[in-house]
Write a structure and sequence with these properties.
heterotrimer; A: alpha/beta; 7-stranded mixed sheet; 25% helix; 20% strand; B: 218 residues; 9 helices; extended
């Protein structure tokens, strides 16, 4: 490993800490005492390489193009590698799907790499074993299986890429009757099956939100967690070019029961219980058919008084927008998905907004297959079960159901990154490498193939799936070779580039991180309407409560439960951290006499949950929503997170897990993992649990009785509707305050003037920027108690405000970070000049000068300054490897805040100076700007009149928050425009 | 009575003198963290005087990253070996041996100086530069001389490419047998140089050396 | 009293004492062994002090996080206590300087202890700006001194820097003033001293006072000069402290009337504290003849007056807020009264505006117990005034998303108790080792309002 990093600030916080404590001591002695002589308090070694690798320049970063492994969406990423270790992940701007954006989980993947709790060595029957022993045991068992005529089963997530799948296929051929089952806890099984019935092939189409003028989403949280959120967010955004020549926006109608991220961004939001949605879908289909003068292909359930108007409106809109409308449905319910497919078909969206020829491979799992597998296991017919990157014992319905069946297999081989519920019961446990540790490939969408290359030598003694399967079938070939071979065979012939030799083809792919090839030819049968035929269960559950399951933006199916950054990432809507909870509507809560934090008992058939209540505005009455992905084995590790002092409360008690696992409480209904089920019993238990949220007050409306009628709503967010905006560009703008200032304002910025613009219409609140900032700026994790005490450290927070009545509640997100005010109130009050203005317009915070009076923070109207209340830990020695060596680790007692990523500015400036050239627009990207999938954040130099930032800041929607206070912020916000779909506004 | 008053005044006076006496020595008094004059003994007695001075090796020959990275970079062991594959001892010793051999009419013995022996040992080689069986190559741990606090960001590349002389900060390194910290590396010292360079330019070329806090602290 | 000559000029010192008696009575506590009561109170005070020391040590070792503060409320108990103690420290200088210049003879029997109180209060106050820092070991950076950083000076625009100067000056001048006043009495102690050490010490510290006309004359000159010098400080210190808030832009802080408002409040609370202490001293050390109902009455009147000013300030604040048309400003004040911290606001109003009105009644003014209770309540009220201004304003400022509530931790409460511990410890030691009443000055007014002629008590 590289040693040269001992010579820089790269030396990691362990050393930094000594230095800091030394400085403290120095500070004390400084008061009068002076030391003579030149003994150094601490002797540091500078250890060079013996022989230096060619590409490594100590102290500079190398970037590797790769593919994100955070979920199965396969976004393109660039890995920033510094002195031999990855320290940051960023979206790959050239990638056709993610196009430079990256979600919160993707950003946080770099921390998982340094997780010391990851499995390091294989184990056989609970004891550490060598790979040889494992191989012997496995191959032996495989032989035995063949002899006994039993079968082999491989269960994986949708993660395995083309090469791995090829390896699996090859492996299966060696064993008659062997099968590969794919399982996604966040299942889209019904979508695939629906297309199987309609088009004769099982696939999930590639939805094109960028081409969609009208979007009808039935409970599909496509901006948050559904299929490929980053791609969809980006596409959704590009479908709403407000600042284009002719401002236009797609019209997004969300029909949902809980307040999802997509719902909170929708132009119109219909609140309907999950059990009502199928009927609405039927009704919509009928109406659309009628509009088009056809006899409805489905039985019309008749109008539902509450939603009829909206349904008619929507049907009309969809028909007018034939060919560029889109209907998506999140329900894992075949009839619903059949209707969705039919709607898109009959609206002529297929081929336009619904791409059938190049389908998506990101969730190919089949729930029925898993159920079948469990039956086989129970029958004892399975001699060998290999589970890779799946944890059914954790998330398959029925507590311990899968584990029970698994024990009946002749041998179970589990490959997992951590010890989890499934591996706990397995005969053989294999350590799973982190996606950044091994060669791999992915094909999220047919025709877009991407490479995953190792950015660091594996920490553990790991092997890829491909490698294992190859060895167990007797041939040893390196992953890289395997991949190249398969690519040569499968993709090189389908190339649509000019690459003449495979090497150029391959090198280009490795260089870019992906390559486009012609999608695999996929003959489809014409749409089979009869498949719609007798539709299954539909009737709403009437008065009964229904329990709905959903994934969170941070933890998804729980695969990221070990990542403290994500555990502490506030939920975009509820802003709660470190917990999952039973979310109910205000009415439901009142009906059951519940208050926030009360623990409720949710009784179901054969299962039950006990969770604290959260009262969520905008949720359907009579529904309870619970997040998946919590209560994962091993999360009791977080009991040590956060400062320890005598009034401090642990994040979780020792032995207690973070949140409750809702997986086993799910229901396998009609062949699918239903995303909702009926509740039998719902009552408070009398006990309560305190929930930590980063936001206490929810609305711009002042508390009742504390403000005169005309001042009830604070002018913080400018909102308007598209039609109003089309009428007048200044729609929704606050009156421009006239500022009387005693400050001379003639300062000419000699070099640059950095500024930022944030488009509230683009921001979806997905919180990717929050984690991006955390990774870039060494922001510590402070634990639940500190968040509860309003001491979160995130430099960038996303304020979420509700407005309107619960009927149609609208939500506004406002990323709030240091505004780098020209007349910064913080700067005048600091006694020691620890925060001053730079000649490039930056509000600088000098950590090493700060004495911590907190005066600056008190005087900041935006309250974006963050104080180090304790010496916050940056995790164990291994996790500290993720620290960005270009940013200081702050000690306790210091104020910190957004620096506009000054380290990036400096880096670019130095590069430009070295090259004797000016800095080009967009060359400096802040971490938040870089990670934003919606490109809502723009950073740049106001001195350059041609820069994007100059254009945006002079645009009509521009306004500054709290401008009337005379702080003259450098950050401009863009009016939030909603396409309410009034006359003229709807057609995009 | 009055002599008490006198006593008090005398006491005060004495104190005053004492303070003046002390402050007059202030230039010998150093604040904590100021390591000016630090000159540690290095594991190998490498001589900058010899290499940079007499032999006129360019600084960037060994510290090759200084022009393109934060860290100037300590030369890899391999870099040393590039020359010391052949140069195994001071030329005088070798000449002496040759003379002795000539007189004794025998083949001159190979001479390896004690210091270079350490280098070879580090590379896991014996004096004949054959891999020593069982020896693990281990890089030499040099003692850092110039060290800035963690909260200071210093970039060699920026300074070298701007045309700053190594000697400006490191002193007449080419005359030093053992490297010595010649400047106090205090903030004032940095800032004043930046101010100066902005006024006068560096090597006839105007520069924009940052004088903002965030030039070095972030 | 037989020898009273005038109805309008009532004697200031009761009991027709001779000079000798005065000396004897005032010095009595210094001579006799310290009473059990003194020991018990001292140990109580020390216990409080120790508690405080423990709390502060823990805070310094662990971090400011051991206080209930958060990202939104950056100051609460710490600065509240600071302003509170500075306020207490006001009466001393006022009594010694301003009343002296106005030739208020009655001040003589209270000024010594009032000045002592001032010093101790300022000491207590001085602690908080230091310990409230995240890195108190770097507190000296607030002082401008030549350094190797370029050099890097302090931010002269920052009220905290002004504070540092203001409080420093205030302490030094108050101390000098107090000490100069002590010199004649130290000489008295010296002359009465029986033990050698005591004689030597008192002798040294009395600067060789010989009681000659010349000495007296010099003394009076310097005292007058110091009084003149100290007078502006009475106004300046709290004015500057108030700028900590007035110059900021947080609604509820950003208020132009703060300087007079704070000064009045300070005098108000200062006198309340003087009363509290004097009434105890009077009782314990049997100074009824020196600190007469007349004194109590006089101080009560000052309290009514300053209390009135404070009430006016409260009203003005509200009026200005509503009149300003600034919605943030308006909200802040309504929120103070009706928001979640309303109870604190009403405690403040009750104690500072309601309670003092009782003092209009002579009956109550002349009822020692009643005045004592009132003075205590005023102290409570004034502490809450600072809490209301600082904490409530911060907890709900501009962006609703960043609103946060605040509640103190054990450590903070212990620290507050500790500051009282320090205050009382010092005061008790003072009462034991130095004359609580300016003997020299009291003798000067002993004959006030009495027929001249024969030396009484002969």
């Amino acid at each position: 490993m590289n040693h040269d990093h001992h010579t820089g600030r790269d030396s990691g916080p362990a050393m930094g800490f000594n230095r800091r404590s030394f400085l403290k001591a120095a500070g004390f002695t400084l008061a009068g005492v002076m030391v003579a002589g030149c003994e150094r308090q601490k002797v540091d070694k500078a250890i060079p390489f013996l022989v230096k690798p060619e590409e490594v320049i100590p102290g500079t970063s190398t970037w590797y193009a790769s593919t994100c492994g955070g979920c199965t969406a396969g976004c393109g990423i660039l890995i920033k590698n510094r002195d031999g270790r990855p320290i940051k992940i960023e979206g790959n701007p050239e990638h056709p799907l993610s196009g430079g954006g990256l979600c919160a989980t993707g950003q946080a993947m770099v921390l998982s790499l340094y997780d010391s709790h990851r499995l390091q060595k294989p184990a056989l029957r609970g004891k550490p074993a060598l790979w040889d022993e494992i191989d012997r045991a496995v191959t032996g068992q495989l032989e035995k299986t063949r002899r006994e005529g039993k079968t082999v089963r491989i269960l994986t997530s949708s993660a395995p890429g083309p090469t791995a799948l090829a390896a699996v296929a090859k492996f299966l051929t060696a064993f008659p009757g062997a099968k590969h089952i794919r399982y996604d806890p966040l299942s889209a099984s019904a979508i695939a099956d629906a297309h199987q019935q309609c088009y004769g092939r099982r696939f999930i189409p590639h939805y094109r939100f960028d081409r969609s003028g009208v979007i009808a989403s039935f409970d599909a949280d496509f901006l948050g967690t559904w299929l490929s959120p980053v791609e969809f967010t980006r596409a959704y955004r590009s479908g709403r070019p407000i600042d284009g020549m002719t401002p236009s926006m797609s019209h997004h109608v969300q029909i949902e029961s809980r307040m999802s991220l997509s719902g909170s961004n929708a132009d119109r939001r219909l609140v309907a219980r999950p059990d009502e949605q199928y009927r609405l879908l039927l009704r919509l289909t009928a109406l659309v058919d009628r509009e088009a003068g056809r006899t409805p292909a489905v039985p019309d359930p008749g109008p539902d008084p509450r939603h009829e108007d909206e349904m008619r409106r929507l049907a009309a809109l969809l028909n007018t927008a034939r060919g560029n409308s889109l209907v998506v449905c999140g329900a894992n319910h075949l009839p619903s998905q059949l209707l969705t497919a039919y709607l898109n078909h009959t609206l002529q969206n297929t081929g336009a907004t619904v791409d059938l020829d190049a389908p998506s491979y990101c969730r190919t799992g089949s729930d029925a297959a898993v159920a079948e597998l469990m039956a086989e296991l129970d029958s004892g017919g399975v001699g060998m079960l290999i589970v890779w990157d799946a944890n059914p014992a954790y998330d398959w319905p029925g507590d311990g159901a899968f584990a029970g069946s698994m024990k009946k297999a002749g041998m179970s081989v589990i490959c997992a990154s951590h010890e989890d519920e499934t591996s706990h019961e397995a005969t053989v446990v294999l350590p799973k490498a982190h996606p950044m540790e091994e060669w791999d490939d992915a094909e999220p969408v047919s025709g877009i193939v991407s490479v995953r290359q190792p950015a660091i030598t594996p920490f553990g003694d790991t092997r890829s799936l491909t490698d294992c399967l190859h060895r167990w079938t007797g041939d040893t070939i390196s992953d890289l070779e395997a991949i190249k071979n398969w690519w040569r065979a499968a993709f090189f012939p389908r190339r649509n580039t000019a690459a003449d030799s495979f090497d150029t083809f391959w090198n280009d792919a490795v260089y870019r991180g992906f390559v486009r090839v012609n999608p695999a030819p996929a003959p489809l049968k014409p749409f089979n309407t009869s498949s719609l035929g007798p539709c299954g269960e539909s009737g709403p559950r009437g008065g009964e409560l229904v329990l709905e399951f959903y994934p969170t933006v941070a933890l998804l199916d729980g695969r990221h439960a070990h990542n403290p950054w994500l555990q502490e990432l506030p939920d975009p809507v509820t802003k709660i951290v470190w917990d999952n909870y039973a979310s109910v509507s205000p009415a439901t809560a009142a009906g059951n006499g519940l208050h926030r934090g009360d623990i409720v008992h949710v009784g179901l058939d054969g299962a039950s949950l006990e969770l604290p209540v959260v009262i969520q505005r905008g949720q359907a009455d009579g529904t309870v929503a619970v997040a998946l992905g919590y209560g994962k084995m091993g999360t009791d590790r977080f009991s040590s997170v956060g400062p320890e002092w005598f009034e401090g409360v642990r994040t979780v008690e020792p032995g207690e897990l973070v949140g409750k696992n809702a997986g086993p409480a799910r229901e396998f209904r009609d062949g699918y993992l239903a995303n909702w089920r009926t509740v039998r019993e719902f009552r408070g238990t009398g006990s309560a649990r305190r929930l930590a949220a980063t936001q206490e007050y929810d609305s711009l409306r002042m508390p009742a009785g504390l403000a005169p009628p005309d001042e009830e709503r604070r002018p913080i967010i400018q909102e308007t509707t598209l039609s109003a905006y089309l009428a007048s560009r200044s729609a929704g703008s606050f009156p421009k305050p006239e500022i009387h200032t005693i400050w001379p304002d003639e300062y000419r910025f000699p070099h640059h003037r950095w500024a930022m613009a944030i488009d509230l219409s683009a921001c979806t609140g997905c919180s990717a920027c929050v984690v991006g900032c955390q990774a870039e700026n060494n922001i510590p994790v402070v634990g639940k108690d500190e968040v509860y005490r309003n001491r979160e450290m995130a430099w960038l927070r996303i304020d979420r405000y509700y407005s309107g009545e619960d009927g149609d509640l609208s939500v506004a997100y406002q990323p709030m970070l240091c505004q780098h005010c020209e007349h910064a109130p913080c700067e005048t009050v600091c006694p020691v000049l620890a925060t001053v203005h730079s000649d490039e317009g930056l509000n600088q915070q000098v950590y090493n000068r700060c004495v911590g009076t907190r005066y600056c923070s008190n005087n900041c109207p935006y309250k974006i300054r963050r104080f180090n209340w304790f010496d916050y830990s940056h995790g164990d020695d291994m996790q500290r490897l993720v620290l960005n060596p270009d940013v200081v680790v702050r000690e306790r007692g210091i104020m910190e805040k957004c620096s506009f990523c000054v380290q990036r500015i400096q880096e670019v400036k130095i590069r430009a100076k070295e090259g004797r050239r000016p800095i080009s627009d967009g060359e400096v990207k802040t971490a938040c700007e870089q990670s934003c999938p919606a490109q809502a954040i723009v950073f740049g130099d106001l001195r350059d009149p041609e820069s994007r930032i100059s254009k945006m800041q002079s645009g009509p929607r521009m306004y500054r928050v709290l401008e009337e206070t005379g702080t003259a912020p450098s950050i401009a916000y863009m009016t939030l425009v909603r396409n309410r779909g009034e006359e003229g506004g709807a057609d995009a | 009575m009055n002599n008490r008053v006198l006593g008090i005044f005398l006491g005060a006076g004495l104190l005053l003198c004492l303070t003046i006496f002390l402050t007059s020595y202030a230039n010998n008094v150093r604040l904590p963290g100021n390591n000016e004059g630090y000159e540690p003994v290095q594991p190998i007695a490498y001589s900058h005087r010899l290499h940079a001075g007499e032999l006129q090796l360019a600084c960037l020959h060994c510290h090759s990253d200084a022009g393109r990275s934060r860290n100037a970079g300590i030369p890899t062991m391999q870099t040393c070996m590039d020359c010391h594959k052949f140069v195994t001892a001071p030329i005088l010793d070798i000449r002496a041996e040759d003379r002795r051999a000539a007189e004794a009419k025998e083949k001159p013995k190979r001479i390896v100086s004690a210091e270079l022996h350490k280098l070879y040992a580090a590379m896991g080689l014996d004096d004949q530069l054959r891999p020593e069986p069982g020896a693990v190559p281990r890089a030499v741990g040099w003692i850092r001389v110039h060290e800035l606090p963690d909260f200071v960001y210093f970039n060699h590349g920026a300074h070298v490419s701007a045309g700053a002389e190594c000697q400006t900060c490191h002193g007449a390194i080419e005359t030093m047998e053992r490297v010595r910290q010649v400047s106090d590396l205090s903030m004032g010292w940095c800032v004043n140089c930046h101010r100066g360079s902005n006024a006068t330019g560096v090597q006839g070329r105007a520069v924009a050396a940052p004088t903002d806090c965030s030039g070095c602290h972030f | 009293m037989p020898d009273v000559v005038s109805e309008i000029r009532r004697p200031l010192i009761g009991g027709n004492k001779s000079y000798g008696e005065v000396t004897r009575e005032v010095c009595a506590p210094l001579d006799r062994k310290s009473s059990a009561a003194w020991w018990t109170t001292l140990s109580a005070a020390l216990a409080m002090l120790v508690l405080g020391v423990v709390a502060v040590t823990y805070e310094l070792r662990t971090g400011i996080g051991t206080w209930g503060l958060n990202n939104t409320v950056g100051w609460a108990f710490d600065i509240t206590n600071f302003v509170f103690w500075i306020g207490i420290g006001h009466a001393g200088t006022l009594i010694s300087a301003i009343l002296f210049l106005f030739n208020q003879k009655w001040r003589t029997s209270v000024n010594r202890s009032a000045e002592a109180m001032t010093l101790f209060a300022v000491m207590c106050a001085g602690i908080f700006p230091v310990i409230h820092m995240g890195r108190p070991w770097l507190a000296h950076w607030v002082i401008p001194y030549p350094n190797a950083r370029g050099p890097l000076w302090v931010n002269f625009r920052s009220p905290l820097v002004w504070d540092m100067f203001a409080i420093g000056t205030y302490f030094i001048v108050s101390f000098t003033f107090w000490y100069v006043g002590l010199i004649p009495d130290l000489a008295t102690i010296r002359d009465r001293a029986t033990s050698k050490i005591k004689k030597a010490l008192a002798g040294f510290f009395s600067f060789g006072w010989d009681g000659s006309n010349r000495t007296w004359q010099r003394y009076e000159t310097i005292y007058l000069l110091l009084a003149g010098l100290a007078t502006p400080l009475v106004v300046s210190v709290h004015t500057i402290v108030s700028w900590d808030f007035a110059t900021s832009l947080i609604p509820g802080w950003h208020t132009t009337i703060f300087p007079p408002y704070f000064v009045a409040g300070a005098v108000f609370s200062g006198f309340a504290m003087v009363l509290t202490l004097m009434l105890i001293v009077r009782r314990v050390l049997h100074f009824e003849d020196y600190i007469t109902l007349h004194h109590i009455g006089a101080m009560s009147k000052i309290i009514i007056a300053t209390g009135g000013i404070v009430a006016l300030a409260y009203a003005t604040e509200f009026f200005v807020a509503l009149y300003s048309g600034n919605e943030y400003e308006r909200f802040t004040f309504v929120n103070r009264a009706l928001g979640p911290y309303g109870w604190a606001y009403w405690t403040m109003v009750g104690c500072n505006i309601g309670v003092p009105q009782l003092l209009w009644l002579k009956k109550i003014r002349s009822n020692v117990a009643a005045v004592f209770v009132i003075s205590l309540l005023i102290n409570v009220g004034m502490w809450f005034e600072r809490f209301v201004i600082i904490t409530i304003s911060l907890s709900r400022d501009y962006l609703p998303a960043s609103w946060a509530s605040y509640s103190p931790t054990t450590i903070e409460i212990a620290t507050l108790i500790g500051s009282f511990g320090l205050f009382f410890t010092l005061f008790l030691l003072f009462s034991r080792f130095l004359p609580m009443i300016a003997i020299g000055e009291v003798k000067g007014i002993l004959r006030y309002g009495r027929s001249n002629g024969k030396e009484a008590g002969k």
